[in-house]
Amino acid sequence: MNAMAWIGSDHVRHDGADKVRGEPIYGADRTAAAMAYAVPVSATVGRGRITTLETAKAERVRGVLAVLTHENLDRLHPSEFSFGLGSASESFQPLRDNTVAYRGQPIAIVVAETLEAAAEAAALVTARYDVEPFAVELDDPGGERVDQAEAVPAFPVVEIGEGDRPLDQAPVVVDATYHSPAQHHNALELLSTLAEWHEGALLIHEGTQAAGRVRHALAKQFGIPMELVQVVSPTLGGGFGQRTGQTYSTTLAALAARRVDRPVMLIVPRSAVFHSVHFRAATRHRIRLGARDDGTITSLVHDAFAQTSRHDLMPFWGPQVSGSMYGIPNFRGTTTLVRLDTQTPGYMRAPMEMATMFALESALDELAERVGVDPVELRRRHDTATDPATGKPFSSRRLKQCLDRGAERFGWSDRDPAIGSMRGDDGSLIGWGVATGCYPGLASAAGAHVRLCDDGTAEVAISGHEMGQGIRTVIALAAADSLGLSPNNIRVTVGDTRVAPQPETGASWGTASALPAIREAAIRIRAHLHQIAATHGEPVANVDVSECRLAEGRLLGPDNSGPPITGLLMAAGVPSVEAPGQYFAPGRSPTEAPDSATAPMSAVMADVDNARVGPVFPDFVTCSYVAHFVEVRVGPRIRRPRVTRMLSVIDCGRVISRRTATSQALGGLVWGISTALREESTVDPRFGGFLNTNLCDYLVPVNADVPTLDVDFIDEPDPSFSAFGLKNLGEVVHVGAAAAITNAVYHATGVRVRRLPVRIEDLMTEPAR
Amino acid sequence: MRAFTYTRARSTAEAVSTFATSPDDQPHYLSGGTTLVDLMKLDVEAPGLVIDLTDVPDLDFVREEQGDLVIGALTRMNDVANHSLVSTNCPVLAESLLSAASQQLRNMARIGGNLLQRTRCGYFRSVEFSCNKRQPGSGCSAMEGVNRHHAVLGTSDRCIAVYPGDLAVALTAFDASLSVIGPDGTRSISIHDLFVPPGDTPHRETTLEPGEFITAVRVPMTPAAQSSSYQKVSDRSSYSFALASAAVGLHLDAGGTASEIRIALGSLGTVPWRAREAEQALTGTQLDEASIRRALEPEFRSARTTPQNHFRVRLAVETVLEAVATAQQRMG
């Protein structure tokens, strides 16, 4: 409706100054009068049944208010796994009975006056178990294998062209198997919930990226109307998919608060976070590439294995990713799920794409070497304008531009393809690697409520969660453009079910979903002001409203003249004008969606909460792309790999907020380093659960592990996917980063590491060359 | 964490008498708290009485006495590392301290307590698992478990937990001694006699008697201390325990022959490991890579490795070579 000025700018983070001053309130920062603390007690066997649970000692600790166990817990309606119609991160709900589904699950909750008393008492709860056999590794014979295509029809076997048949005839075949470990989100902010009951109504404060989903789940579980549950999540100390469902810790906090009739804070300890909520499933991928001698790939076969839980089937749709990445005419992709005795795995940044593209991009690197084609060139040659899986064109695909710009900026032409041929001054081996990534264009529904005030400020209450990615900033920039204000004069409320519906913010769709809702509200506000102008005989009212715009605090016509908004409001005798806006992903509008201009706010918002994720476009497919270029160095004596240079070029359509987009991209690359060289949840098959459940043993990079990172954006709009020209960003930046690093490690050392993460010992054996 | 009584001692005598007269079974001294508080939170340690030593005067110093470097036991790790006497005369000490932990931890931890830090064995640190060190006779979960970080030297059938510290490795290379005070008065112990390999009693880690604590560390500043080096290899670049480390000191005579060489290995053994055989083989010789490799071989004859940790034997050799190279550069 008007020229974009703030969108695309490098304006500062909307909440940056607040964060520097320590002002945002994270989940566990909050307190309430007479608040009690709850601490979980964890199961210490891999699977089985509790035979006796000894709580007397714990109850005697001074300050203990209650010990909740399966023997005294209020009955609730079951939780329903989010993959389906439910909202929970898994269907299993601890403490319902004496079942131990996996090591680390809570078997009791101690509530006390202080955190210290609760923790002391929790350590005094003892249990005896009947232990049952369990399995925690993909290849454990106790793991039950499930053919995903049969069990989850939404994810059938992917067949393109002649499937796997041409593989036999291919003169060159790369056949390799790649492994990615389980990973756990370890945001600094622990999972925490403050639950308060007031006259039958439940108020939850917690860092979640799906406040609306938590709200629905709690209402259902407690059997109370949704209106009686509110969930507030203004700021998260890291989401990354971990907090996209309702977790049982929230339910248990609410139960504890009801039991002791006081507000209760439940903070899940770091070690228990490893056994509480979504994590990245361990996966294995057999990739077979059939190619002609010149490197032309004629067929790709991808057989994936992914871990799920005994009680839920969390699908893995890696072959749905690999089949659409390149112009390869024949493809077959299958997935086998393996039921293991852990909590249900789920979403973690690029949940399907990270491991899939590690495998595919490693295999491509192996092929490039086999056929003697430069790895950048090999990828360029297999670019495609249409999605092989659907035959539909991509709305935009600038992968080749990412590769070309990246290669030029990185200096790729100086790369000597011979393994171990490049050396640093200190004798270290230098390797250069490349890999690409993709992520589908997604959007959810969003609802906004915008109020333009007579003091030249505006309030935006909207769907979305701020987890550090910068959604407040993009919202402020978009509102600033639509309302003709400075972003500094816009107040943004996100993550609060009391003021706007709160579907999940995840899968990179936050910006794509929020911005259209703001624009719709702003168009209504403009109409409102235009009407006031007409009532008061302002000349601008003679111009059609669609040709007017809000700018410089005025309602301007095409001739750039018009009355100040404050004057119009004063004339109308109102302090502000307000309007709702809503957005449904294309192809996902409810059939009888109420008109948000006329229907009551609550009706509009309920629809947003229930809308399905999209979009579904009949004629095209949208993906974001990235190309990563990496330099690693490996010491001549101590063969410890270090990333010394990293450049990534990203096609995410139009960049909305350069500041936060850059930051988000950098974060994806840091995590790429972590995935390639550090992160792994270890298991001890004798005991079950996860073993390295602390930040000393679960390695993430330190600053000294991260070199200067460089990111660049193609920054060309995709108007088909979004009226704003944007595509998704948050996940794609992480996809392929690990493969670029392991490909660089190979180039330096000749050691092909097919099992993440790379460890120093992997590089200490001389390669067989 | 269990409830406990906390008291602050104002003098060494008060600390010792408070300990000796405590009705509690296991009173515990506290300095920086970076190990003890951590283990109390994990329920691995549960003292009924904690005696805070940090108000005890005159134990926070770095000075030179008769050619020895003497450091008060309550001196903070960072203060030792950044002291010019240390960085100039004994770089291996400064480097071992600065390679450890984080800035924040080094600002809290005192060097007496640093020497007594407990192993990082995950089975020791989690009360869910059997551990002979934590609960004598209960069994060792690490031997058949995740043991990439566990010891390959000085192990026993009862325990393979590694001694994780860095400073003690440097002190071991340079024959440091410790002043100790306890109910029976003061005494001096060689660093070599402080740490006890697990044997049949992995719960007994040092020769300190109940009620004793370290008051000072004394390091002889031999010619090799000047050109010394600490090299540490970990999975990440900082804030991480070592996969292998080496403290090396070197003095070459005019002809380039090693008149003094000191080598200690860290994070390889159940205790800091002095490579005496290698030192003897190399003293009086011209050092080269092949001779150092050869000299180190006997040190690992007694090594007991697992499929996960056997790479650390070779890594240790490479780490020593790296440390020797740095020390040689410091010879000028």
Describe the structure.
The complex is a heterodimer of chains A (769) and B (332). Chain A contains 17 helices and 27 strands. Chain A has 769 residues and is of the alpha+beta class. Chain A has three domains: 16-20 and 443-610, Aldehyde Oxidoreductase, domain 4 (2-Layer Sandwich); 31-132 and 188-238 and 243-273, Aldehyde oxidase/xanthine dehydrogenase, molybdopterin binding domain (Aldehyde Oxidoreductase, domain 4, 2-Layer Sandwich), CATH 3.30.365.10; 283-441 and 619-763, Aldehyde Oxidoreductase, domain 4 (2-Layer Sandwich). In chain A, the strands form six sheets. A seven-stranded mixed beta sheet of chain A has the order 3-5-1-13-10-11-12, sandwiched between helices. In chain A, strands 7, 8, 9, 14, 15 and 16 form a six-stranded mixed beta sheet that branches. Chain A has a five-stranded mixed beta sheet with strand order 17-18-25-26-27, with helices on both faces. In chain A, strand 20 (458-462), helix 12 (471-483) and strand 21 form a beta-alpha-beta unit. In chain A, helix 9 packs parallel to helix 17 (737-749) and helix 16 (658-677) packs across helix 17. The N and C termini of chain A lie far apart (63 Å). The model of chain B has no long low-confidence stretch (mean pLDDT 97). Chain B has a five-stranded antiparallel beta sheet with strand order 4-5-8-6-7. A four-stranded antiparallel beta sheet of chain B has the order 9-10-11-12. In chain B, strands 1-3-2 form a three-stranded parallel beta sheet, with helices on one face. Chain B is built from 13 helices and twelve strands. Chain B has helices spanning 12-21, 36-41, 77-81, 84-89, 91-98, 103-108, 111-115, 167-173, 191-194, 223-226, 276-282, 289-296, 311-331; strands at residues 5-8, 28-30, 49-52, 62-65, 68-72, 177-182, 185-190, 213-220, 228-233, 244-252, 258-266, 273-274. Among the domains of chain B are: 5-51; 225-331, Enolase-like, domain 1 (2-Layer Sandwich). By secondary structure, chain B is an alpha+beta fold. In chain B, helix 5 packs antiparallel against helix 8 (167-173).
